[in-house]
Write a structure and sequence with these properties.
The chain has about 100 residues and is an alpha+beta fold. The chain contains 4 helices and 3 strands. It has a domain of about 55 residues: Arc Repressor Mutant, subunit A (Orthogonal Bundle), CATH 1.10.10. The two termini are about 25 Å apart.
């Protein structure tokens, strides 16, 4: 029997859990929860009873807080914040 955590996808999930969001942002779950409470990250959506973030919403939120528009060519700030550093380190899945 294949476990869900053992499945390798060729694409990123559209909606991510708090644990996955924290992993993708390269921070702890408690940091993610704290930053959501402080308004530094958007609140999750409810998918059934599960809190989930659309990754593109997190990415857009981070870019906008750093003065960048999603999909707009431009340089990243000279000193990206810790979230942007984590996003930049995330490897793109192979198709």
């Amino acid at each position: 029997m294949t476990r869900k955590s053992d499945v390798q996808r060729s694409y990123p999930p559209e909606y991510v859990s708090a644990d996955t969001a924290a992993y993708l942002l390269d921070c702890s779950r408690s940091t993610l929860d704290d930053d959501v409470r402080r308004g530094l990250l958007p609140k999750p959506l409810e998918v059934g009873t599960m809190p989930r973030w659309r990754w593109r919403d997190l990415d857009s939120f981070i870019l906008s807080r750093n003065g960048l528009a999603p999909g707009t060519p431009g340089e990243a700030p000279s000193e990206p914040d810790r979230y942007s550093k984590g996003v930049l380190r995330v490897a793109t899945p192979h198709a």
